[in-house]
Design brief:
- With 470 residues, this protein is α+β, with helices and mostly antiparallel strands.
- It has 15 helices and 16 strands.
- A hairpin with a 5-residue loop joins strand 15 and strand 16.
- Helix 9 packs across helix 12 and helix 13 runs antiparallel to helix 14.
- It is globular and about 70 Å long.
- It binds flavin-adenine dinucleotide (FAD).
- Flavin-adenine dinucleotide binds next to strand 3, helix 5, strand 9 and helix 12.
């Protein structure tokens, strides 16, 4: 491929200012490279053309050109992904949605908003709030991730127990397929029983079926008042028992997260925050409830009383104000950064039926301890959703290559264990490049063949994010 020609031809279609060729010196190399890389540290970006479309029509023109010339493309959102989905390492054209960040319209009656897909998720939260509504999908990366990237990965986050996944909030999508066609699915209506709901195919498709350019999201009312509770828990079984108790309470649970003492130590080191309790504990659970009025405060105390009397917790504290809410959340949301900034980490993001979780953790720990006694494990996650983030840390003195080879060799054993306990090898991060060799542990061959057949309809020349997912 002659990149200079590609740059000229694409510039003629969408405007020179929207096309960057690595060699033309318009952008420094590190910034340019960063558009072809996500949060995985395993891959090196290798590409030369970066485009910044501003409209759906721009995206369609880019894809038409790429499809005609059979040049692969990589959609690039906020690049906070953990699966290598936004990595460009084979001279693809990288399509950054950064400049597609505007509100298109809003419906104050239903409570919905239509935005371009490159809007940063936190800005979407603000736009919803300014209109008196609430967009509930939230997690530690929403200050950088795009709503388009969230839809492409069907992101979850910390409030799935109450509000579900991104999929549950998407009313309509505009996408550009691999043929350069613009498809508009469902618009902004709630009810539409007119055959297959094709938007769902694009939600979680990791940029392999189409580029999401616009989306309409349903909004809801903000939780009235929030109470954040942090408790110290002596064993994993008690975490599940506490979760069971939350179902018996009429108080709406917003989040149910857990982490280990090891994770807490890492956050304390990284953020310089004090221990929440006087003595360490094997596990901690962070619960968030919606409350409205004194009656609810009593219900909250009653939950705490029950789990204390049943000895499911050894200590606990209710945050007294919004600053303390933030501090408690820091213990949980600071974990990913605390680990990845100071260590080399092999990440696994898995889900399991809750009833199998304890047995799985026991077997998984003995598998890892048996095979790699020096490896430290950081275990945390959205336990209320059955979602564990299982991070293996590189031991001191080991080189990266050896570490990742060892991790990759233990992965199949772990995935077999996940299969045995009826779980999934990727709960919310997706498959991307990182997990594609293992997709068969969670999907049957006939499911994978069906996915490939669907891809062939929307992307017959296979130019959209090739090599990702399968
Ligand atoms: C600290 C931290 C915490 C996190 N916590 C969570 C969590 O709790 N829950 C969770 O689900 N995830 C979490 N993640 C992972 C990540 O933030 C999500 O997967 C997020 O949805 C990715 O969005 P993005 O815009 O950064 O996408 P990117 O990383 O840019 O891309 C992700 C995938 O989507 C594709 N893509 C991007 N934009 C588009 C588009 N417009 N059209 C089509 N395809 C597109 C890319 O090609 C790629 O395959 C976390 C990440 C970090 C760093």
């Amino acid at each position: 491929m002659n990149f200079e020609t590609t740059k000229k031809e694409l510039s003629a279609k969408i405007g020179e200012s929207k096309v960057i060729w690595k060699e033309d010196g318009k952008m420094d190399e590190a910034t340019f490279d960063s558009f072809g890389l996500d949060r995985t540290k395993t891959y090196k970006p290798e590409y030369k053309i970066l485009v910044f479309p501003e409209t759906t029509e721009d995206v369609a023109a880019i894809i038409e050109y790429a499809n005609f010339n059979k040049i692969p493309v990589v959609p690039s959102g906020g690049r906070t992904g953990y699966a290598g989905g936004a990595v460009a390492k084979n001279s693809e054209i990288v399509i950054s949605l950064n400049k597609m960040n505007k509100v298109i319209e809003a419906d104050p009656f239903l409570g919905s908003i239509t935005v371009q897909a490159g809007m940063v998720t936190k800005n979407l939260h603000k736009e919803a709030e300014e209109r008196g509504f609430y967009y509930p999908v939230d997690f530690a990366a929403t200050g950088s991730s795009h709503i388009g990237g969230n839809i492409a990965t069907n992101a979850g986050g910390v409030r799935v127990v109450r509000y579900g996944l991104v999929r549950d909030w998407v009313l309509g999508l505009t996408v550009v397929t691999g043929k350069g066609e613009i498809l508009r699915f469902n618009g902004e209506i709630l009810k539409n029983n007119t055959g297959y709901d094709l938007k769902h195919l694009f939600i979680g498709s990791e940029g392999t079926l189409g580029i999401i350019t616009e989306c309409t999201l349903k909004l809801t009312a903000s939780p009235k008042d929030i109470r954040v509770i942090l408790v110290a828990v002596p064993d994993f079984k008690s975490i599940l028992e506490i979760f069971k108790k939350t179902h018996e309470s009429p108080l709406p649970l917003l989040a149910f997260e857990f982490f280990t003492e090891f994770c807490l130590e890492k956050v304390k080191e990284h953020l310089g925050v004090p221990s929440p309790f006087s003595s360490p504990s094997p596990y901690y659970v962070l619960m968030e409830y919606e409350v409205s009025g004194e009656n609810d405060e009593e219900k909250l105390f009653s939950i705490l009383e029950t789990i204390t009397n049943e000895e499911y917790i050894t200590d606990g504290s209710i945050a007294q104000n919004s600053r303390q809410n933030e501090t408690f959340w820091k213990y949980r949301e600071g974990i990913s950064e605390s680990l990845s900034l100071h260590n080399t980490v092999h990440k696994n993001d898995i889900s399991l039926p809750l009833r199998n979780m304890e047995a799985f953790i026991q077997e998984m720990e003995s598998l890892l301890n048996g095979k790699y006694p020096g490896f430290q494990i950081a275990l945390f996650g959205h336990v209320g959703d059955g979602n564990l983030h299982l991070n293996i840390l590189m031991p001191e003195g080991m080189d990266k290559e050896t570490f990742f080879i060892k991790c990759k060799s233990v992965d199949p054993d772990m995935f077999e264990l996940i299969q045995k306990y009826h779980g999934s090898i990727s709960a919310e991060h997706g498959i991307g490049l990182l997990k594609k060799d293992f997709l068969g542990f969670s999907r049957s061959q006939s499911e994978i063949d069906s996915m490939k057949a669907i891809k062939a309809i929307f992307d017959p020349n296979g130019i959209l994010n090739p090599g990702k997912l399968f």
